[in-house]
Specification:
- It is a single chain.
- The protein is α/β, with parallel strands linked by helices and about 290 residues long.
- It has one domain (about 5-245): Phosphoenolpyruvate-binding domains (TIM Barrel).
- The chain contains 11 helices and 12 strands.
- It has helices at about 25-30, 50-55, 70, 85-95, 115-130, 145-150, 170, 180-195, 210-220, 240, 260-275; strands spanning about 5-10, 15, 35, 35-40, 40-45, 60-65, 100-105, 135, 155-160, 200-205, 220-225, 235.
- Helix 8 runs parallel beside helix 9.
- The protein is globular, with a radius of gyration of 21 Å.
- Bound molecules: 3-methyl-2-oxobutanoic acid.
- 3-methyl-2-oxobutanoic acid (KIV) binds near residues 66 and 205.
- 3-methyl-2-oxobutanoic acid binds next to strand 10.
């Protein structure tokens, strides 16, 4: 059965109305890792819009409304300026556009670090306003108390260790992590702390492969690699990166399409048609009966 539906933008209803389909659940996904083994890896991609969610939904287990939307959608220099209002608006669009995948929304910088209570207020707002299944936040040991607080109050959480983009001002850039012994130990300790706090998954970003594997073995929860290792329990990429929307992408991105070239070509042909007055043609104009 196809899970791709047209979205009626005037009512936000799918058309045709989809047969009732149970979304993937966080506990169901979490159970994929049994005794340290994940037979079927978790497939996760970012999504920021309803139409993008519709197209990705059939292929993914988890859709992440990442705060990378700051750079990808809004042209911001980093994810630091992203607000909770932006995440709520895009999270709701992605939930409306999907029926099958579980949707997780990123907590933006400044929305959770102050205290577990601040994190609960903002995470519960995201769940209420978007219908998402859980939230993601960055940081390891320092965030363990907050993760415990959220999970114990009904909010599933994905942690994020290694290269944590919201901390770019402390890290000094987006270089890979885990090259020194101290850094490697901290990454594994961070993943373990999040696991023990109740996170159902931990994103491991931009980490040298042996440390990504060590972290995956050290935790009972799922690990989701992005520049980690194929041995992680699942993988995530920024969709626009893997679609070839940008000239420069991190080393860990595999390009599955060249969408920037396709769009550039389509825009060039449209512009040529307009200038030559060959668009609109007879098929695109209304003629008197
Ligand atoms: O914001 C984001 O898109 C992310 C993924 C890259 C993991 O955090």
């Amino acid at each position: 059965m196809s899970t791709t539906f047209q979205l009626d933008t005037s009512t936000s209803r799918a058309n045709p109305t989809p047969a009732p389909m149970k979304r993937m659940t966080i506990p169901g996904l979490r159970k994929r890792k049994q005794d340290g083994v994940t037979a079927e890896p978790i497939v996760m991609l970012t999504a920021y819009t309803a139409r993008q969610a519709q197209l990705l939904d059939a292929h993914c287990d988890l859709l992440l409304v990442g705060d990378s939307l700051g750079q990808v959608i809004y042209g911001l220099p980093s994810s630091v300026p992203v607000t909770i209002d932006m995440m709520a608006a895009h999270g709701a669009a992605v939930v409306r556009g999907s029926y099958r995948s579980a949707v997780v929304v990123d907590m933006p910088f400044g929305a959770y670090e102050q205290s577990p209570r601040q994190a609960f207020a903002n995470a519960s707002r995201l769940l209420k306003e978007t219908g998402c299944a859980g939230v993601k936040l960055e940081g390891g040991e320092a965030m363990a108390e907050t993760v415990h607080f959220l999970v114990n109050r009904g909010i599933p959480v994905i942690g994020h260790v290694g290269l944590t983009p919201q901390a770019v001002n402390v890290l000094g850039g987006y270089n890979s992590r885990g090259r020194s012994e101290a850094e490697a130990k901290k990454i594994v300790a961070d993943a373990v702390a999040l696991d023990q706090a109740g996170a159902f998954a931990v994103v491991i970003e931009g980490v040298v492969e042996p440390i990504a594997i060590a972290a995956t073995r050290a935790v009972s929860c799922l690990t989701i690699g992005i520049g980690g290792s194929a041995q992680c329990d699942g993988q995530v990429l920024v969709t626009e990166d893997m679609l070839g929307m940008f000239e420069r992408v991190p080393r860990f991105v595999k390009r599955y399409a060249e969408m920037a070239v396709t769009i550039d070509d389509a825009a060039a042909r449209y512009a040529a048609d307009v200038r030559a007055r060959t668009f609109p043609g007879i098929d695109q104009t209304y003629q008197p009966k």
